[in-house]
Amino acid sequence: MEEKITIVGAGSWGSGLARIVSDNGYRVMMYDIDPMIVNEINTNHTNKSKLPTGCLNENVSATTDMAKAIEFGDIIVLVVPTAVIRRALRSINQVITAKKLFVNASKGIEPDTYKRVSEIVSEEISSEYIEGFVALSGPSHAEEVIKQMLTLVTAASPNLEHAQKVQRIFSNQSYFRVYTVCDLIGVELCSSLKNIIAIAAGIIAGLGYGDNTRAALIARGLVEIARIAKALGAEEKTIYGLAGLGDLVVTCTSLHSRNYQAGYKIGSGKDLEQALAEMTMVVEGARSAIAAHQIIKKHNIYAPIIEAVYDIIYHKQNPQDRISEMMQYDLKEE
């Protein structure tokens, strides 16, 4: 029997993923709390407030009824901000009645607990209802996916069969290709930490720095991601793959990146609250910066770029002053 897909969260990336699997012939039901979005998807097959261009297929429907959405799908795709992931999972746990394969497509680390989404799912969903968990991650802006532009990502799970199932369902031969990875820890960490570096990339652009600076930032930011990820159990090869280096590059260089946009506003003179107020989508990097700062302190990891982003956002340090301070550090080997 062909699998049916439930997507929890009808934002931009949820809509992009709905386009992919519906293009591949699967029936899709999207869940969202906003009845206007749900009605637009059902009536017009668009979601213009989240994705101004592109459309969804007729085999995509939407609902505000969580029980109906969870009953529909054999595979539950989570595309909600990590700030509300526990609340969403608790709602799911109240209505779920059968085993499901959970796929997470959001990117973030929970402050204070340092928990990855896979760990949060295992805490909030009763074990008898979890068939498995897969993280779907890589350089993938929804604005391009919805227009069927060539994109490559990874499906990560310690259970290779689960990763291969997601690979089969999401891959097609025209524009979306999925590779399997067994290093779930590495994929989840890299996909979260790169958002912090993307904020830094936006900040330096907002300050007027150019390509030289951005290239250096990406290279040194990757070093910091590697230090943190390896300290927490990631495999080195993951850091230099699609979910690591690939996602870092696209997030630090694209105007589609909400984290880059937020950083640009901060570099241009706004504080975090002003920057977030002007954004139409969630900036995961701001929240992940708190968790990363806590991890850095706990494990005594040297990560000056990530710490600078944290201080600029939460201690209101002047970005130009912080850059000037970092340029005074002792010279050393790369």
Q: What is the tally of beta strands? A: 8
Supply the number of structural domains. Answer: 2
User: Could you state the CATH homologous superfamily of the largest domain?
Assistant: NAD(P)-binding Rossmann-like Domain
> What is the class of the largest domain in the CATH system?
Alpha Beta
Main sheet summary: 8 strands, mixed
Which sequence of strands runs across the widest sheet? 3-2-1-4-5-6-7-8
Mean of pLDDT: 94
- N- and C-termini, Cα separation: 54 Å
Spans of at least 5 consecutive residues whose pLDDT stays below 50 are none
- Give the CATH architecture of the largest domain: 3-Layer(aba) Sandwich
Residue share in β-strands: 5-15%
Q: Rg from C-alpha positions? A: 19 Å
Number of helices: 16
The structural class is alpha/beta
CATH topology of the largest domain: Rossmann fold
| Global outline | globular
General description of the model:
- This protein has 16 helices and eight strands.
- The protein has 334 residues and is α/β, with parallel strands linked by helices.
- Helix 3 (66-72) crosses helix 4 (85-95) and helix 14 crosses helix 15.
- The protein is globular.
- The model has no long low-confidence stretch (mean pLDDT 94).
